[in-house]
Structures are given as structure tokens and as C-alpha cells.
Write a sequence for this structure.
């Protein structure tokens, strides 16, 4: 395994014959890079992340994630690959009937981590994201920004080698946006490969990071 | 497997059950009734088998005489029989002795006998074949020979009963298997549907578990445990109802009258454990069917 590395070779993804989401996309992201994926709504940002995360299969083309060919991945291997990839979903995908604590602890429970360690790690991560007081809340009782931070907490709790964040600042005011970006930067500093999909030009204004711009499923810049 | 997994699985299974308790309650009740019907057959079979065993231990033959036989005739017969190997004489019961022991058995209902003009009970001689087995033609040959005698009216021996009992057992086995098969399918259907309800209610959760990297085994295990618990509870409830029924019958009825003192036994602990295990396996099977359909999609 080559942790943190993502390579795409001529990837296509069609949702139906007249609905191409990704067109002939090749991309090389090295371990430890920080990359913004940008482009207008419907450009294919989310679809690209889904392919990397194997929740969508490419219609054609190949991709290597952490050195694994995602076209030939098996069920168990897929589960283990996903534990190495943290994802902040555009729609969060939190469980409404589980507390903040349990939403985050889930990612450790599936790996069989012992409860005392789970408790310590979850407390620590929630504190880092300023959610200590909301531990016993259920997601519907939280604001959009708080839910987003829970989603980030869940994505980073496993120390993933890759972090995919789909519009991680979409619901946040400028102040928290800066905080979240600083947090992503911190995770990046630890050696994690970070991909952030955003259509916010504000976020990209002064950045020195690599920017991949998509339009109608193609890389335009 | 790690203990933290097992804890998680059981906690999750119990959460599923409590979130879906109406369906589970109905399911367990229905399963219990299905198992009760099946278990009743098992109980009947076990008892008849037990009776057949009791009878098979030694073969008793009763010779009924016409009218009141002369003492000399009885003694002659006795000495003839005693010379046959493996035969011992148990006792001679005269007509008077027969009616006296019946009166004693009837107790306060003795009055019934007062209306009779004439003693209807025959005198009899009971003999025992010590090492009788079912293949041995001797009892049958002796029966044939005795029946030709003038003083003898009828000859009965327990082996004949055993034959009849075997036929009854065969019938119970057949009906029990057919019914058992049907009840098995019904139970499986109930469990499959209950678990399907839980799985559908947790569709969102299953998707998220997959996305964060849970293996299929991890996702499925709580549902399999949930189904097994449902089956087990149904089986347990059925056994408890059967035991309650057994105890009630034992208290109410006295089986010593009429039918030669037959005791009714409850199913052995081995069979009980087997039945519980079976109910659990049906639960496991039902839930894996429910998951199979879901996981294919
Ligand atoms: N499951 C799907 N079925 C059909 N079409 C889909 C599906 N998912 C995405 N698409 C289509 O693929 C295209 C790209 O969608 P995608 O979600 O990747 O865009 P995006 O860049 O993330 O947009 P946004 O900024 O609005 O999130 C869109 O035209 C969309 O309609
Ligand atoms: Mg999107």
C-alpha cells in the first residue's frame, strides 16, 4: 500500500447515456498533498470524490487509491480502504438517532477498538472541534455548522491517510470557515493527503495550494 | 473475535429489538404458538415411546378363562406352562378376586357394582416371559396353543399392545413431520419479515456503516443475533407453556384408573435443549434470509 496516494487514469463516469459526470479525467495526487477541487455546481466534484472513495465505480478508466486498484477491490479490502479515508460528506450523513459521541465513536467501534480508548479519542477530537458541550446531543438538535464539525470529527478520528472534504465550509460563517480551514491545514501538516471540493472562490483567493478546476466533468485548469 | 465486537453486536441487537418491539412481541408470540404445537407432538411421541419401553421390559401374558375353572384344571395348566423355558407364573386371579380388586379400585364409586346380578369379570392367569424380545415366536405359539383349549376364553399379551403403539407412533411421527415442516416454514417467514422490518428501518445506518468502512460481517451480525434471540424467545416461551400444560394435566387427572398405571413424562432436558437450539437456528436462518435479500441490492 502507498498511503495517501491517488492516481486516476482516463476515468469516465456516466449516469445514463446523455449524463456524463466525469469525462476523461486523469489526475495524480501525491502523498501529503493538499488539493482544492473547484468548479461550478454540477461540474462533477462530488462524483470525483465518490470515485476515489469507491462509492461510485468509474464507467471506464482506472484509479489507484492508496495503491489499490479500485476496479478490482473486494468487499473486505474496500472496508479496510475506507477506514484509511476520512470523508466529510456534502450532506454530512450523520445518524439522527445517535448522539454526537456515538456518531463519532462508530468509526472506532467498527475496527474493534476498546471502549476506554474510544472514549478518550472521541473526547479529544470533539474538544479539538469545540463540540465538547454537545457530546450528548443528537444531530437534529445542532446547527448546520455544528453538524459539519461533527462530520469532520468523524472523518479525522481514525487518523486517515486521505481526507476528502466535500464543501466543508458550505454552511459556516466566515469566522468558523477560517477555523475549519486551519483545522484541515493542521491535519494536512500531520502528513494526511487532503482533498477539498468547493465552489467558493473566496476560499481559493489567496491560497498557494494546488487547485483542480472542473467543468462539465473535465479538468479545465 | 474481539470482545468489543461481541459487546457491540449484542448492544445493537437489543437496541434493534427495543426499537421494533411491537413486531418482535407479535413475532415471538406467534412463533411460540407454532413451537407449542410442534412440541406437543414431541411430548406425545416421547410418552408413547416411554410406555412402549415399559411394556417391552418383560412380556406379560394374561389367560382369561371361560366361567369358573376347576382348581385342578388351573393347576394342570400351571405345571404345563412352568416347564416351558423362560416362563414364570405370576398369579391366578379368580372371578371373586377380580371383582374385589375392581371394587377397591373404584373406591366410593363401588355402588356401580351393586346393580350387577352376575360377576362379569373372568378368572385369569398371568404369566411372564422373562427375556422376551419382539422377534421371539414363543409367546405367539403359546397363545395359539392355549386358545385351542376348552377352558380358555381369550389370551392377551402386551406385545400386541406394543404393535398397536408402534402404529400410533408411526402416525404421530408422520403427522408431526408434515406439521413440523409447515410450522418451520411459518416460523421462518415470521422471523424473516420481522428482521426485514428492522433492516429497512436501519437502511440509512447500514449505508453509513458501509461508508465509514464497516465490514459486511460487522453490519450483519447484530441482525443475525436479533433473529436468533427472537427464535430462542419463541422456543423458550413454547417450552414454558408446554410445561405449564403438563403440570396442570398432572395435577387434575389421575391416570391410574382404567388404563394400567401409565405415568406421563415430560420431555427430557436433552430434547428441551435440542428444541431451543432448533428455534435459535430457525431465527438465525430467518434473519440471514432477510439480510440476503437486502445485501444483494
Ligand atoms: N446518482 C446520480 N444519478 C444521476 N446523475 C447524477 C448522480 N450523481 C450525480 N449526477 C450528475 O452528475 C453531475 C455531477 O454531479 P456532482 O454531484 O458531482 O456535481 P458537483 O460538482 O458536486 O455539484 P455541487 O457543487 O452542486 O455539489 C450532475 O449533472 C449530476 O446531476
Ligand atoms: Mg457536490
Amino acid at each position: 500500500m502507498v498511503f495517501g496516494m491517488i492516481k486516476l487514469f482516463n476515468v469516465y463516469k456516466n449516469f445514463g447515456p446523455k449524463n456524463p459526470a466525469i469525462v476523461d479525467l486523469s489526475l495524480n495526487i501525491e502523498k501529503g498533498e493538499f488539493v482544492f477541487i473547484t468548479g461550478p455546481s454540477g461540474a462533477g466534484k462530488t462524483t470525483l470524490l465518490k470515485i476515489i472513495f469507491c462509492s461510485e465505480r468509474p464507467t471506464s478508466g482506472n484509479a489507484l487509491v492508496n495503491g489499490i486498484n479500485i476496479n478490482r477491490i473486494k468487499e473486505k479490502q474496500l472496508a479496510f480502504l475506507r477506514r484509511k479515508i476520512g470523508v466529510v460528506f456534502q450532506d454530512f450523513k450523520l445518524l439522527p438517532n445517535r448522539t454526537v459521541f456515538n456518531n463519532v465513536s462508530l468509526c472506532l467501534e467498527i475496527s474493534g477498538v476498546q471502549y476506554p480508548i474510544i472514549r478518550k479519542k472521541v473526547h479529544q477530537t470533539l474538544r479539538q472541534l469545540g463540540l465538547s458541550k454537545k457530546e450528548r446531543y443528537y444531530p437534529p438538535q445542532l446547527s448546520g455548522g455544528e453538524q459539519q464539525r461533527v462530520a469532520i470529527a468523524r472523518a479525522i478520528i481514525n487518523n486517515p491517510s486521505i481526507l476528502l472534504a466535500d464543501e466543508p465550509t458550505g454552511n459556516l460563517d466566515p469566522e468558523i470557515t477560517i477555523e475549519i480551514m486551519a483545522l484541515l491545514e493542521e491535519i494536512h501538516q500531520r502528513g494526511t493527503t487532503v482533498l477539498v471540493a468547493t465552489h467558493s472562490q473566496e476560499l481559493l483567493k489567496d491560497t498557494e495550494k494546488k487547485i483542480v478546476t472542473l467543468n462539465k466533468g473535465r479538468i479545465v485548469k | 473475535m474481539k470482545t468489543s465486537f461481541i459487546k457491540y453486536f449484542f448492544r445493537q441487537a437489543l437496541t434493534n429489538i427495543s426499537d421494533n418491539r411491537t413486531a418482535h412481541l407479535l413475532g415471538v408470540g406467534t412463533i411460540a404458538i407454532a413451537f407449542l404445537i410442534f412440541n406437543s407432538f414431541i411430548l406425545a411421541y416421547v410418552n408413547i415411546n416411554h410406555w412402549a419401553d415399559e411394556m417391552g421390559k418383560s412380556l406379560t401374558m394374561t389367560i382369561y378363562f371361560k366361567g369358573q375353572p376347576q382348581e385342578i384344571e388351573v393347576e394342570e395348566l400351571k405345571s404345563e406352562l412352568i416347564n416351558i423355558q423362560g416362563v414364570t407364573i405370576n398369579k391366578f386371579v379368580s372371578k371373586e378376586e377380580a371383582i374385589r380388586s375392581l371394587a377397591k379400585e373404584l373406591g366410593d364409586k363401588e355402588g356401580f357394582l351393586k346393580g350387577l346380578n352376575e360377576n362379569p369379570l373372568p378368572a385369569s392367569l398371568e404369566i411372564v416371559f422373562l427375556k422376551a424380545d419382539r422377534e421371539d415366536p414363543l409367546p405367539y405359539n403359546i397363545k395359539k396353543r392355549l386358545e385351542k383349549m376348552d377352558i380358555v376364553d381369550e389370551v392377551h399379551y402386551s406385545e400386541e399392545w406394543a404393535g398397536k403403539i408402534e402404529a400410533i407412533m408411526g402416525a404421530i411421527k408422520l403427522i408431526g413431520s408434515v406439521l413440523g415442516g409447515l410450522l418451520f416454514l411459518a416460523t421462518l417467514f415470521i422471523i424473516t419479515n420481522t428482521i426485514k422490518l428492522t433492516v429497512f428501518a436501519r437502511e440509512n445506518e447500514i449505508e453509513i456503516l458501509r461508508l465509514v468502512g464497516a465490514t459486511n460481517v460487522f453490519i450483519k451480525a447484530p441482525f443475525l443475533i436479533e433473529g436468533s434471540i427472537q427464535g430462542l424467545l419463541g422456543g423458550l416461551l413454547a417450552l414454558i407453556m408446554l410445561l405449564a400444560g403438563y403440570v396442570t394435566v398432572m395435577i387434575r387427572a389421575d391416570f391410574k384408573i382404567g388404563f394400567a398405571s401409565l405415568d406421563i413424562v415430560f420431555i427430557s432436558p436433552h430434547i428441551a435443549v435440542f428444541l431451543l437450539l432448533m428455534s435459535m437456528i430457525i431465527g438465525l436462518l430467518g434473519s440471514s434470509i432477510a439480510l440476503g435479500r437486502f445485501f444483494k441490492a
Residues 34 and 185 of chain A are 8 Å apart (CA to CA).
